[in-house]
Description:
The structure holds 2 protein chains of 2 kinds.
Chain A lengths: L1 H7 L1 H9 L2 H32 L10 E8 L5 H16 L4 E7 L12 E4 L10 E8 L3 H5 L3 E4 L8 E3 L9 E5 H7 L9 E4 L2 E9 L16 E8 L4 E8 L5 H12 L5 E2 L6 E3 H8 L1 H35 L1 H9 L4 H37 L8 H26 L11
Parallel strand pairs in A: 4-10, 6-10, 7-9
Antiparallel strand pairs in A: 1-11, 1-12, 1-13, 2-11, 3-4, 5-9, 7-10, 8-9
Helix pairs in contact in A: 1-11, 3-9, 3-11, 3-12, 9-12, 11-12
Chain B lengths: L1 H14 L1 H29 L10 E6 L16 E2 H10 L4 E13 L8 E8 L3 H4 L4 E4 L4 H5 L4 E4 L1 H8 L8 E4 L2 E9 L11 H4 L11 E4 H6 L21 H5 L4 E8 L3 H20 L9 E5 H7 L5 H30 L2 H9 L4 H37 L2 H4 L6 H27 L3 H5 L3
Amino acid sequence: MALSRTFMQLRPIVAALGRHKVATLLIVLQVALTLAVASNALFIVATRIVHLSRPTGTDEAHIFVIRNGWKMGQNAAQIDANIRADLDTLRHVAGVRDAFSSQGFPLAGYNANIITRLKLEPDQKTRAQLATFFASDEHTIDTLGISLVAGRNFRPDEITAIGPNDKMSPPGIIVTRSLADKLFPDGSALGKTIYLPDGPAAIIGILASLQGPLKHSSPLDGYTVLVPTHYLDPAGAVYLVRTDSTTMKPVIAATLKALQERSGVRIIDPKEGVFTMAQERERAYADDRSLAVLMSILSGLLLLATAGGIVGLSSFWVSQRRRQIGIRRSLGATTGDILGYFHTENLLIVSGGIVLGALLAFFANLSLMHVYELPRMPLYVPLLGALLLWLLGQLAVWGPARYAAKVPPVVAIRTE
Amino acid sequence: MGGYYVVLALRSSARSKALTALVIVLLGFGVAACMVSYAVFRATTSDPLPAKSSHLYIPQIDNVGAAYNDQGEPIETLSYIDAMALWRARKASRLTLLYATTWQVESGNPLIPAMSLGGDAVTADFFSMFDVPFRFGGGWTADDDAQRATVAVISRHLNETLFAGQNSVGREIRLDGQLFRIGGVLEDWNPRPRFFDAGSHGTVYAFDDAGDIYIPFTRATDMKKDSTFVYCPTASRQSDTSHWDAYLHSECDRIDAWVELATPVDVDRYREYLRNYAGEQQSLGRFSWAPNIRLRSLTDWLPYWQISPSTSTLSMLVSASFLLIVLVNVVGLMLARFMRRAPEIGIRRALGASRSAIYRQFLTEAATMGFVGGLLGVALTLLGVWGAGGLFEPNIARLVHADTSLIALTVLLAMTATVVSALYPTWRASQTQPAWQIKIN
C-alpha cells in the first residue's frame, strides 16, 4: 500500500528533479564514478587476495629454511659429504621432525634451475610439458608434510647426487596428481615412463598436491616433480627443516648451533640465511598485500565521500523545500509519504548513476587489462557495487528524510 | 578587500558548520590520498641519474628469436658473444659491460668471518659513465681491463666493516680465494632504482641496495663468475652449459651493456651499427630472423621495463579518481552553500556590488576553504607517509618521504581544486536577481 503510494509519486519526483538539473546530475555523476572506481579497485583487491591465499600444499607452520652457502674451492664429492653430514646433524637436533636438502623451496620465486621439461616420447616433436622440480630424498615427503595418493616414496639407495652441469636422469620420480593427470589424462600415470631432458624416468609415486618454487600463479602451478638427488651446487644448498612444534625460535637456534660444528665449510648469512615459511610467505606477497590494503582503504574512503555528498545535498534540498513539504503535510500527506518521497527520489538518482557507472566500470576494466595483467571483471562485481551504492544512498538520505518528515504542516502558512 | 572576503568566508562557514566541515574533510582526504600516492610514485619513478639519463643508452640485440624473446622485444641483457662484439667494435664514445654477481669475501683480519657479498663485474668506463663518487682512490684503466688485473673497488660500507673506515687503497682482500688490490673506496652510492645492472641482477630486485664490490669484467669472466640473473633460451639447458667456455659462448643472455651517445646523430649511427651487426649475424646463419634490435635511453627504458612496482601506479590512478569524485562532491556542496545565501547576495548586489565583486567574494571563500582543507590534507598526508612504512615493502617504504615541496603541493592542490570546483556555483550565485531576493516573500 505504502509502496504503491510511493510509486504514484514518481511523476512529481521526476518533475521536481527537472528543476534541479545540475545538482541531480552531480549526484548521478558522483555515484557513477564511485561505482566505476570502487568496483575496479575492489576487483583488484580480490585478485590479490587470490595470490595471498595461494596454497603451497606444505605444512608451512612447521617449516623453516636455511640458505647454506659453501665456502669456495670444495669439489662435488666434498659438497656431497657436507650435505650428508649436515642432514644427519639436522635430523638429530631436538625438536626437529625431519629435514632434507634441495635447490629451491616453495615461494622462493623464479630461479634458472627449478624448471624442467617432460616429454612422453624420447623424440617427441610437440612442445614438452614444463614443470618445476625439487631435488629431494626419502625424507622430502615427511619434511614438507605432503602425502602420496599412489605409488611409493623414494628408497635411500635411489638418492643420487648431481651438480648443476651434470645430466639429470633418475630412474624414478614422484609427480603431483595434477601433473600426472595432465600427462596421462586417463589416470594411468603410475609406473609410466616419461622423458626428462637428459633421459627417461618412471613415475613411482603421485602426490596429492605441491606447489613449485614459483610464488605467483603461472601455467606451471601444481606441476611439480620430486627428483631423488642431492643437488651439488658449489654456490650452496637449501635445507628445509620441519619442526615438531610451531615455536620455532629455540629449534632454529639449536639447529644453527649444531651446524656451527662444521662452520669452516659454509657461509650462512646471519640476517637472511634462516627464515620460516611464514616469514617467506609474508615477504613473497608483501606487494600484493600492500596493494590490497591500499585499495581497500581508498574504496572505503570513496564510499564514505559519496555518502557524505548525498547527505549534504539531500539536507540542502530538504531545507529548500520546507514550505512545499509543509503544504503537502497540511493537504494530508503523512510523515511516511514524505519519507517515501525522499527515499524514492534517492533511489531514482542512484539508479541513474549505477547505469552510467556500470558502463564506466567496464571501460575502465578494459583499459586496465591492457596496462596491468588483470583478468576481465566478472559481472557480479559491479552488481555487488551497485547493491552497495543503493544501500548506501538509502542510508545517507535517511537522516535528511527523517528531518523532512518532521516538518510540521504549520510551516505552510508561516511567513519566514 | 581580500582580507574582508576571507573574514566573510569564515563567518559564513561558522553559520553552516556541518556543510563546511563536510567540504573540508572531503578535501583533506581527497588531497591526502593523492599526495601519499604521489610520494610513493615519486619515490619509485625518480630518475636515478638526472644529469646523464638522456645520454646513456642500452643496446639490445635479439639473439633468441621469436620463440624465446619477450613478446617480440629483445631480452634486456646481451649474450657474451654480442657484448664482446660491441666491445671490440668501439662505435660509441664510451661503453660499459657489466653483470651482477656475488663473491666470498675474506680479509686479513681473522676476527671477521667470511661473507658472501654482491657486486658487479664492470669495465673501466663504468665509474665515469655513472658518475660514481669515490671516497678514496679511484677506478681502473682500460689497460687493467685488458690485463685482467686483480684490482677491486669496494663500497664505503664494506670499507667500514673490513678496515674501520680507514683509507684502504693499496691493501688487499680475498675474493673467492684470489687476492685483489683495493684500488678505490666509494662514497655512499645507492642509485634508486638500481638501474645499471637491472637485467643481470633481476628487474624484480630493482630496489635492492647497490653491491659492495666491483672488479674488472675480464677478471671476473676468467674466474668463471656467472651473472645473478641469466636468461637462457627455454631454460631447458638447450644451450650446452656443461663447460664454462661453451657456456660463455652460448646464447644465454646475461650481460648489461651501456653506451654513452652525445647527439641524436650518434644515436642514429649507433642504431644503424646494431642493425648491421644483427644483419651480419643473420647472414652468418647465427640468427634465423631479421635484425631485431633496440637502443633505448635510460629515460625511456625505466618506464618500458616497468621497474616501478605496479602498486604505485595503480594507487596513483585510484587516488586521482578519488580526488575527482571528491571534487564533483564539492561542486554539489558549494552549490548548496552558495544558493542558500541568495538573500545575502541579493542585498549586496542591490547595495551596488558588481557581479565581479560577487565572483571575487565567493572564489575567495572557496580558496579559504581550500586552504583549510589543504592544511587538513597536509596532516593526513604526513600521517599517510608515516603509515606507508607499514604498507609497502621496506626497500620501497624507506624511499617515501615528505618534504616542503610535497607539503606546498598539497596546499596548492587543495586550493586550486576547490577554486575550480567553485567556478560553476559562483557563476550561479552571481546570476542572482537582486529584486527577487529583497522582495519580502
